[in-house]
Amino acid sequence: MTPDELKALVRTVPDFPAKGIQFRDITTLIGHGAGLKHAVRHLAERCDAAGADAIAGMEARGFIFGAAVAIELGIGFIPVRKPGKLPIETIGVDYALEYGTDRLEIDPGAIGEGHEVAIVDDLIATGGTALAAVELLRMAGARVPLAAFVIDLPDLGGADRLRGAGVAVETLMEFEGD
């Protein structure tokens, strides 16, 4: 399936979570067997071309796509977790949200110095979470050559922010507007 065919599988839910927001719901894409398979294959091709030797995905939907891409490529998966979810000593980074802050954590032993780790997630909006993941992976010694997403919301500028941080960005589809 082409990226345009995959885009047709993404449901738009108006006025969620607030009036005026067009929520891009991937539930319909991941529930479509052929669609999920082809989305993963497209993402995997991009990660392979970037020389990734591991894939990192942010909780929660990044786990769906990231783990599947890692399996497709036969490489490891690094879960980037919310705080307090790992039973070991972690390293973490705090980052700003629209209202407040949040934190991401990883097992520092999951990454070897100089590993080429591609980030995979379902959607890039403002880029705050993805930039925090890049910072965290770099703190652990990884190089992050690529961030690959199913959906880009280009009006929110996240992909450009990642590029400004020295990370190439690949997406399967774009939706204009919020």
TrEMBL record:
It is found in: Cytoplasm. It is an enzyme of class 2 (transferase). One of its GO terms (cellular component) is cytoplasm. It comes from the Bacteria. The keyword Chloroplast does not apply. Keywords: Cytoplasm, Glycosyltransferase, Purine salvage, Transferase. Gene3D superfamilies: 3.40.50.2020. Its EC number is 2.4.2.7. Pathway: Purine metabolism; AMP biosynthesis via salvage pathway; AMP from adenine: step 1/1. It catalyses: AMP + diphosphate = 5-phospho-alpha-D-ribose 1-diphosphate + adenine. GO terms for molecular function: adenine phosphoribosyltransferase activity. Residues 36-150 form the Phosphoribosyltransferase domain. The keyword Glycosyltransferase applies. GO terms for biological process: adenine salvage; AMP salvage; purine ribonucleoside salvage. Catalyzes a salvage reaction resulting in the formation of AMP, that is energically less costly than de novo synthesis. Homodimer. Belongs to the purine/pyrimidine phosphoribosyltransferase family. This is Adenine phosphoribosyltransferase. The gene is apt.
